[in-house]
Design a protein that fits this description.
Distance between the termini: 4 Å
Order of helices and strands: EEHEEEHEHEHHEEHEEEEEEEEE
Number of domains: 2
Number of helices: 6
Helix content: 10-25%
CATH class of the largest domain: Alpha Beta
CATH architecture of the largest domain: Alpha-Beta Barrel
Structural class: alpha+beta
Radius of gyration: 18 Å
Largest sheet: 15 strands, mixed
Number of strands: 18
């Protein structure tokens, strides 16, 4: 059995908290660019990608408030099987993207040294065939807070598992897709979710490289304290949660649930025959989730 897991909990460096999907008044967001930077800085974020629709906005005139600001853009292109377009967040690009098809957009962004996240596949009603029809994206949004708060379609773990079961090496990120749209029955979508990236320094190059390697976990509540694989057994430690799940392929995996206690903070799972990937997810008693990246297993 061969295990591939670039473990952020054992990697050198420190943790940096960031949001990868953010809108401003330069597209359909309600905050100006500076206002959104101020909000995230005040809430303890270390980096922020501003990703307005079809527009790469300049960041040089903004006060970063001690954060790393990542240039980015969200584009909607192509059509999936059910008629919805592919939404892609482009991170670390230097120039606006001119391509008009999903694969060409990904290729052009990567040619610029950037990386691509496939956005909210559940919200977009993309099928697994849609996701498999393109490649080169580094991650999909396993959670999107504005999709969750607005129409209840923020979780895309089924899409992620489908990709992993098909043999794709794709990470999962939790993002806000912040617009600052809210009302008396819809919570604000700003400063909800994040990824915690282990990197040597807070720079664009270091954050993107750690993301490429999968050296991060995602959350909008619980913290994952440690994860290790020893002798075919996966051990995980978290802040107090209601349950911890070792998610895998069809009919496989394991869940630990707090039954005799209010919460649990650790669990373990012995890798079983036929499990080709395992990722850990946990939920606290407030219904907030966190996710690790997958452990990949081959014979």
């Amino acid at each position: 059995m061969r295990i591939e897991f670039p473990n952020p909990f054992k990697a050198p460096g420190r943790w940096f908290k960031g949001n990868l999907h953010t809108h401003t008044t330069q597209s359909d967001g309600a905050h100006t660019p500076q206002e959104i930077v101020d909000r995230y800085a005040q809430n303890g974020y270390d980096f922020l990608a501003i990703t307005d629709h079809d527009k790469l906005i300049p960041l040089d005139d903004l006060d970063p408030r001690g954060m790393l600001l990542i240039p980015g853009e969200e584009v909607g292109v192509g059509r999936g099987e059910l008629g919805s377009s592919f939404h892609l967040v482009l991170l670390g690009i230097q120039r606006p993207i001119s391509a008009k098809s999903p694969q060409a957009v990904i290729d052009e962004a990567r040619e610029q040294g950037g990386e691509v996240v496939l956005c909210h596949p559940y919200w977009s009603l993309l099928t697994l065939s849609d996701l498999l029809s393109i490649d080169g994206y580094i991650a999909i949004e396993v959670f999107n807070s504005t999709c969750h708060h607005s129409i209840g379609k923020g979780f895309s773990s089924v899409h992620w598992d489908g990709l992993l079961a098909a043999g794709r090496r794709v990470w999962g990120v939790a993002v806000d897709d912040a617009h600052h749209h809210f009302n008396d029955h819809r919570p604000d979508d700003v400063c909800v979710a994040w990824i915690s990236v282990k990197a040597e320094e807070l720079s664009l190059e270091a954050i993107l490289e750690s993301m490429r390697r999968g050296l991060f976990y995602s959350s909008f509540g619980p913290e994952i304290i440690d994860l290790s694989v020893e002798g075919g057994v996966i051990h995980v430690k978290t802040t107090p949660v209601k349950h911890i799940t070792f998610a895998s392929g069809a009919g496989r995996g394991e869940r630990w649930t707090a039954i005799e206690t209010e919460t649990i903070t650790e669990a373990h799972h012995t890798i079983r025959e036929g499990e080709r990937f395992i990722r850990v997810e946990c939920m606290d008693r407030e219904g907030r989730w966190a996710w690790t990246n997958p452990i990949l297993i081959t014979d």
